[in-house]
Specification:
By secondary structure, the chain is an all-alpha fold. About 50% of the residues lie in helices and about 0% in strands. A two-stranded antiparallel sheet has the order 1-2. A hairpin with a 2-residue loop joins β1 and β2. α2 runs parallel beside α10, α4 packs antiparallel against α5 and α4 runs parallel beside α6. The two termini are about 35 Å apart.
Length: about 375
């Protein structure tokens, strides 16, 4: 038994030491991989990524996790459009048709009012994808998305009235509404920590000679983002990157929940991570990287960890994300998040604050079988 514990402890030490290293690690995203393929020029087509995309199609013709039905339209429609650009083989054309058939069957999922667990950004992304002439050519069934299209129109109007700043949530979805290529974040040479938005920017900036040098560094960002997936297939992309503070805050939060922050065999690798987290915390909170706006989720995880380690973090850092009796990742969100509220309530409870109203709010959404389901961030 002691031998097994030693092996686990050694593996855990390596994991802790690597938290946030080189921008963090992120699994492959079907949506972002397909979008980067869509926005690539013909002579840049990443054929290995296209082959991988084909392997991700489910037996029912769609892409994405069947357990989360409403989250499947975006990756399926994006994959269909990406493959359509490069449909040179019969098998690829068959995959495209199976994807279109799946989307037509999805109409039942979108009947009735829009749900609370609407996938993040879908009201912008679906309208953008439907504007691609290929969507009309393939006969994607638009009436099913009437409510999403109406919401997307409202959302775009809101975005048009604000000034877009690097490292903010609207910029993260720039591929869904952006047209004029401004200079990306000078510190990290990407658009909104999003491979999709960054690839869209590259496509729109391809004819501007004044942005040649910037495009070179942005291409470098996409290569680094792809490497962060840990895959040896070029062109596979994560959903966002870098995510070093997310990885750090949530990795340490898992250790807090496991009552391991005081483990004597971990202190030499834990203390540098905790010190780095404390140094990154600002009065506005913590974002998933130092270049992205703070959010209530990372902030709540970090506040709980830092308090447990003896750091005095002003409670205002977290309560600024409170709206009535629940908490948000970012203000102006369309739906609240149960997981963010739960994490914030946990952090506040550890410091002795009364969170009864937030707990009552959470209890209202529990299903009769004990589960909580309608969470926008954690399907």
């Amino acid at each position: 038994m002691s031998y097994i514990v030693d092996i686990l402890l050694t593996a855990l030490r390596h994991t802790i030491a690597d938290l946030g290293k080189q921008g963090g690690r992120q699994s492959v995203s079907i949506y972002d991989t397909a979008q980067v393929i869509r926005f690539s020029t013909d002579n840049e087509a990443p054929w290995p990524a296209l082959e991988w995309l084909l392997t991700q199609q489910e037996a029912d013709g769609g892409w994405g996790n069947p357990a989360v039905p409403r989250a499947r339209d975006v990756p399926t429609l994006t994959a269909v459009l990406a493959l359509h650009r490069h449909a040179l083989r019969r098998s690829t054309r068959e995959a495209i048709q199976a994807g279109v058939n799946f989307l037509r069957r999805q109409t039942q999922v979108w009947s009735g009012p829009l749900p609370e667990d609407l996938p993040a950004g879908i009201e912008l992304i679906i309208p953008h994808l439907l504007e691609d002439p290929a969507s009309q050519e393939l006969g994607v069934f638009v009436p099913a998305y009437a409510s999403l299209l109406a919401l997307g129109k409202k959302r775009r109007a809101m975005i048009a009235r604000i000034r877009l700043e690097p490292g903010t949530t609207p910029v993260h979805s720039w591929e869904a509404f952006g047209t004029i290529p401004t200079d990306p974040d000078r510190r990290s040479r990407q658009h909104g920590h999003s491979p999709s938005a960054t690839a869209a920017w590259l496509r729109s900036a391809s004819q501007n000679p004044q942005l040649h040098d910037v495009r070179t560094s942005v291409h470098s960002y996409l290569r680094s983002a792809s490497a962060a997936t840990g895959s040896d297939i070029p062109g596979l992309m994560p959903s966002n990157w870098p995510i070093d503070r997310f990885e750090q805050s949530f990795g340490l939060h898992a250790l807090l929940l496991g009552d391991l922050l005081d483990h004597p065999g971990l202190q030499d690798v834990l203390q540098p991570q905790i010190a780095g987290l404390a140094a990154a915390m600002l009065p506005s909170g913590l974002g998933f990287s130092d270049y992205f706006v703070a959010d209530g989720d990372d902030t709540a995880a970090a506040v709980a960890v830092l308090h447990a380690c003896g750091h005095n973090v002003p409670i205002s850092v977290l309560t600024r994300f409170q709206v009535d009796n629940y908490f948000v990742a970012w203000h102006q969100e369309l739906q609240h998040s149960l997981s963010v509220t739960a994490r914030a309530a946990h952090a506040l409870t550890r410091q002795g604050f009364n969170v009864d109203e937030s707990l009552h709010h959470l209890c209202k959404f529990q299903l009769p079988d004990g589960r909580w389901m309608t969470d926008k961030w954690h399907g």
